[in-house]
Amino acid sequence: MSKTTLHSLMLLKKLGEKATCITSYDASFTQRINQAAIDIILVGDSLGMVLQGHDSTLPVTMGQMVYHTRCVDAGNSTSLIMADMPFMSYRTIEQAMTNGTDLMQAGAQVVKLEGGLWLKDTIEKLYEQGIPVCAHLGLTPQAVNKLGGYRVQGKSPEQAASLLNEAIELEAAGASVILLECVPSGLGKAIAEAVSVPVIGIGAGPDTDAQVLVIYDMLGITPGKPARFVKDFLAQEGEILKALEAYVLEVKSGHFPAPEHCFK
Ligand code: KIV
Q1: 0.70 cut: is pTM over it?
Q2: Residues 6+ away with beta carbon under 8 Å from 239
Q3: Atom 4 of ligand 1 has which residue's CA nearest to it?
């Protein structure tokens, strides 16, 4: 199997075929993820919650992101690796350049930044220098304190229009991928149709170009009540590889996410 690239993801979008994405933080899960032919691996700062046990992603450091990106890269042969820039690691363009470089040198092919229009210049500079960016919009967990909790975003017509505009503007600034978290399905569809780059959704409905889940969530390991958008594929399949393969099959065939995993 050849390695996923931004080019091959664009092709899938043009063909109307769904892409798959899942988080990984180490080499062993990464090898299973490759076996299941998952297109994209996200080295997410969700590791602060599912590996480190914090109640937010804020404590995660650049050093930790670099370490886990190296671990994933060591186990990877076929997926595109996207790595999160952690809280406050891109507050200036200079910082974003230095930290983005570290993640690319650790094995990432794309870096992910959370935020809106204020990221335009940063995305432009990173892209110009060969660092492709995924812009994370909607529920941005690094802003949990500002947002007042992990809530669905873009529910009012004004908020929805503003998110749509942000996606369009950030694509124009050079974003190669958009990730949309916890927005109504109709808005997920509208944004995927409005931009030409791939849109990855989590709790953003069935019509985004790709889906992502946190691996600990879809294997039923994360403690506590799962979020609405989570499905436990391990409970359904009984084995890790089969769970990953079922996720791929259900995303590609349009069976996941089902209405019970989506927001109105
Ligand atoms: O950090 C992460 O795993 C993420 C996903 C929830 C999309 O950003």
Answers
A1: yes
A2: none
A3: 44
